[in-house]
Amino acid sequence: MRIWSNSAVLQLIDAIAIAVAQGYMLVRSRLTSHPSPVLRVTAGRDAAVWNNKLLERELAIYRQERQRVPPRQRWHYTSVHRLDILQIMRLRNWTVTQAAERFVIHPNTVRSWLKELQSSEESSRLFTGIIWNRIHDAVRWTVHDIRRLCPEPECGTRTIARHIVRAAVQISRSSVQRILREEPQSHRPNRPAIVPPDGVEPDYLLAPKKINEVWHIDLLEYRLLWYRFSVAAVMEGYSRKTLSLTVFRGTPTTANMIHIVQSTIESFGKPRFIITDHGSQFQDRFESALPSIDVIKGKVRQPSFNGKAERLFRTFRAWLRAALLPLSTRPLQRRLDCFRDWYNEHRPHAALNGQTPNEACEGVELPASIPIRQAELCEVEIDVSRRSYRGDPHLPIVSVRIARKEAA
Length: 408
Hints:
The protein has four domains: 14-68, no CATH class; 71-126; 137-184 and 368-406, no CATH class; 203-362, Nucleotidyltransferase, domain 5. The protein contains 14 helices and seven strands. The chain has helices at 7-31, 37-68, 79-91, 96-102, 107-118, 137-149, 157-166, 173-180, 203-206, 254-268, 284-289, 307-322, 329-345, 357-362; strands spanning 214-224, 227-236, 242-249, 273-276, 294-297, 378-389, 392-406. The strands form two sheets. Strands 3-2-1-4-5 form a five-stranded mixed sheet, with helices on both faces. Strands 6-7 form a two-stranded antiparallel ribbon. The chain starts with 6 loop residues before the first helix and ends with a strand.
């Protein structure tokens, strides 16, 4: 066994090194106040060399971390930083290769900066100025405010973009992603589809042209402690409005589903088509009870045919994981009615161009969205607020208000 592998010996060596370093620092600090000018200058030079060595070690760590990042994913130097790099390059008499090595960039990038500096037309890129196509800082802060107010994973970049577009501000999902990448965030991998669509689905079923022509019906089973519940959803295909959301203890029967459809017809009228899956509740007895309605079943193992109802249940599951629900059917039904009203009134939908299902059903047009750029000669104030729907903190209502003031 080697003596250097003994932990006691290593601790002793470390203690001796710390004592020597502390003694050296104490002597150097006392020399800075020595009456001899030669000793003071020597102590100051030694302190400068010491700090320089520490800074070199610190910069080496940052440089190594930047080298580990792929070139396409490295952050870009701003115009101010580019000009500083060229100035440091001239002051230290570095070559293009040396400057590129020190700042972990390609030598051709430094050559392009020098070419822009020598050109009178493109030299403005290296100086501080207004980027005319840059999104206004107020809009950028709005994106971060919505992310701060709605940190749930279900509030993604599409949802943030829809909330801002509803306030008549033009922004895309890619712009929201780019703005959010300005700050570190956890990476969530994209989940692939369960089963890809097979064949070409008819447009008159999946993309109806008028209201109350196609309905979608589906069931969802979940457990609360040792209780098993089922939720039956009826959705209108044109506006994606949830017409009915009913909870059952256990599995509903065919009679239950017929009663739900008939009561929904009394409230909203009769559809022409009803899309279901191959569940036991939607067999011959269900079809015979609705003689004037065509019941269409999707293919087996293809949930995309009834994807509108499946997307509703995806939002419902996200709310279900966070909400504290009762175990009895009656208060649970009241909570489901609250979720249904929030989904119809306050949740913007990407397939509806940012409209809510109620707005799409009533034909309410959103105001035209316009871009707000940093170069505008006006003061922009954007207020972002979040409130809970009927006291449920997991049903957010995001409000974005914009005020423009002429610059003085």
